[in-house]
C-alpha cells in the first residue's frame, strides 16, 4: 500500500484544539513544516507540502520534499471575535486577476483560474526553486475549468477531492467514500475520463470525513486507525492523509500525527510516497466495511456522527 501525506501549508496557530488561520501567525509555516518533517522522518515518511504563494518566503529552505501549489482565491473574513481570520492569498490577491472576493475557486472564470494557477506556480518556482506539479484547491473547491487550467499549466496531480462531501463551496458527492485515483472526464471532474491529470482523493472515514489529525478531537485517534485498517485489510493501494501545517505547532496534534504514523508504519508493505509519485492503479475497486470500526467505537465518534454537518473547509 502507498501512503501519502499532503500538508496544506498556511499561516496560523492552534487554540483550544482548533486551527485559527491568522495571517500574522507565521509559525504555522516556519515551525509547522519543520515539526511535521520531524515526525515524518521518524517513520521514513515523505510529505507533499501544498504551499500557498503568500507563505512561500517563510517556507523552510531545502526540505527535500515535494512542493505543490495551494490556491485560496478571494478574500473573506471567517470566524468570530478573537477566532476571526482572513481567508485568501495576499500574494495572489495583488498579482492575479480576481473579479470578486469569493473564496470559492470554482466561482471564478477559466481565465481567472488559469491566471491564479499560472502566477502561483511561477512564484513558487522563483522563491522555492522548483515548479509544482501537484495542486490542492483552497476549500477543496474546483470545477471543470480548474481541471482544464491545471492541465494547461502542466500540473499532473490534484489532491483536492474529498469524496462524498457537498457543502456550499465544493461538490465531491458523486465519488464513493473510498475512492482510488482516477483521470477525470474533461466535462465532468467527478467522472472517469482521459484528462492528463490524476485526481488523488483523500482517505475518508465512516460515515464521512477526511483522515486528518485535526479530526482527532472530534472522532478520536482510534477512528482514524480504524479507517486505515478498513483500507489496508481490503488491499486498497492508496491511503491519503491530509492536514494543515499550523496544527503541527501544537503538541496535541503533533502527538496525534506521530501515533497515527507509528500505527501505519507498523504494517507490512507500506510505502510512504509523495503525491507526484502516485499513478493510476489498474481496476481497483475497494468496498467499504464497518468491521474495523467496531473496536474504535467510542463516545467521541457517536458525538461526531450527530455533528456530521461539521466539515473542515480550508
Ligand atoms: Zn487551505
Task: Describe the overall structure.
- Strands 1, 4, 5, 8, 9, 12, 13 and 14 form an eight-stranded parallel β-sheet that branches.
- Helices cover 30% and strands 18% of the residues.
- The chain starts with a strand and ends in an 8-residue tail after the last helix.
- With 314 residues, the chain is an alpha/beta fold.
- It has one domain: Glycoside hydrolase/deacetylase (TIM Barrel, Alpha-Beta Barrel), CATH 3.20.20.
- It is globular and about 50 Å long.
- It binds zinc ion (ZN).
What structural keywords apply?
binds zinc ion; TIM Barrel; alpha/beta; eight-stranded parallel sheet; single chain; 9 helices
If classified by CATH, what would the architecture be? Alpha-Beta Barrel
Elements, N to C (H/E)? EEEHEEEEHHEHEEEEHHEHEHH
What structural category characterises the helix and strand content?
alpha/beta
Main beta sheet strand tally, sense and closure? 8 strands, parallel
Q: Helix coverage percent of residues?
A: 25-40%
The number of domains: 1
Shape: globular
Bound molecules: zinc ion
Topology:
Blueprint: E1 2-9, E2 13-15, E3 18-20, H1 27-42, E4 48-51, E5 66-71, E6 75-78, E7 85-88, H2 90-95, H3 110-128, E8 134-137, H4 144-152, E9 157-158, E10 184-185, E11 188-192, E12 198-199, H5 216-219, H6 221-233, E13 238-244, H7 251-265, E14 271-273, H8 291-294, H9 299-306
Parallel strand pairs: 1-4, 1-13, 1-14, 4-5, 5-8, 8-9, 9-12
Antiparallel strand pairs: 2-3, 6-7, 10-11
Bound molecules: zinc ion.
